[in-house]
Amino acid sequence: MAVVDQDVQNKSESIMDSPESIIETKFEYDQTMSTTKAVFILVAIFISSLLILGYLYYSFPHMTEEEKQYIKLPFNIKDAQNLGKVLEHYKDTYYTQVFMSIFFCYIFLQTFAIPGSISLSILCGFLYPFLLALTIICLCSAMGASFCYLLSMTIGRRLAYRYFPDRIKSYAKLVKKHNDNMFSYIMFLRITPFLPNWFINVCAPLVDVPIIPFWLGTFFGVAVPSVLAVQAGQTLHELTSTTSSWSWSSVLLLATFASLSLLPVLFKAKLRDKFD
């Protein structure tokens, strides 16, 4: 009788641990916040962020009309090139304002999954020394992704379950396989285009990815592709498109680092097979 009870308990635990049951259970817990309320809070946070961007803009030093037209979020290499020329002119005198503007803009784009961060990465390479630029990019990427993570965890859960249920289930299965290697797995996802970054940020809290390995994996994972952007920033005036920074050697470098990031996972699996 005890054996039967134990089998029933094990089956019950197995069912509860499945990605489908996790999603269904969490969706039931999320009924306290309506979709309308979630959207309202998200819009309020977005508008508040825009107000901060506006404050940074109006606290900037007096500029000519020609310069003002280039003070905007760069969504392509031409925007980044023009913005870089203007900021370079003011960087030495107004270092803090320039730095904080880039810092907050980068986090803003990452938090709300808005395209344009690659142009800001190139801009950082243009304005700052290599190591400082790379550190800014990694820190802003990790912070912005974590803010997106927190938004999804608190107010975006209901929306994500409604519009991406199948993709979340697939992601949950992948995450479950790498529970013991979450840092390496997140780092691998950041290096490779296996999943879109916005999808990783939004779905990570929904499938129980811990915030610490998520932050660290993002910080170190984005460093590898960001090296290319920083290098591109060094020759920003010569670039005509974002594809100019890519070459076969760059692709090989990405593949090498992506493979290296998987080594902890592979070795741990082999050791487990050996000692089990």
Give the topology, please.
Blueprint: H1 2-17, H2 19-29, H3 35-58, H4 65-68, H5 77-91, H6 95-111, H7 117-127, H8 130-163, H9 165-177, H10 182-191, H11 197-203, H12 211-221, H13 223-234, H14 248-275
Helix pairs in contact: 3-6, 3-8, 5-7, 6-7, 6-8, 7-8, 7-13, 8-11, 8-12, 8-13, 10-12, 10-14
GO biological process, one term: autophagosome assembly
Pfam families: VTT_dom
Main location: membrane
- The CA-CA distance between the termini, in Å, is 29 Å
Low-confidence stretches: 1-16, 239-244, 271-276
Tally of DSSP helical segments = 14
Helix content: over 70%
Beta fraction: under 5%
Can you summarize the main beta sheet?
A: none
InterPro entries: TM41A/B, VTT_dom
Family: Belongs to the TMEM41 family.
Protein name: Transmembrane protein 41B-like
GO cellular component, one term: endoplasmic reticulum membrane
Overview of this protein structure:
- The protein is an all-alpha fold and 276 residues long.
- 77% of the residues lie in helices and 0% in strands.
- Helix 5 (77-91) packs parallel to helix 7, helix 7 (117-127) packs antiparallel against helix 8 and helix 8 (130-163) packs across helix 13 (223-234).
- The longest helix is centred in the middle third of the chain and has 34 residues, at 130-163.
- The chain starts with a helix and ends with a helix.
- The relative contact order is 0.11.
Keywords:
disordered C terminus; TM41A/B; VTT_dom; transmembrane helix; 276 residues; disordered N terminus; mainly alpha
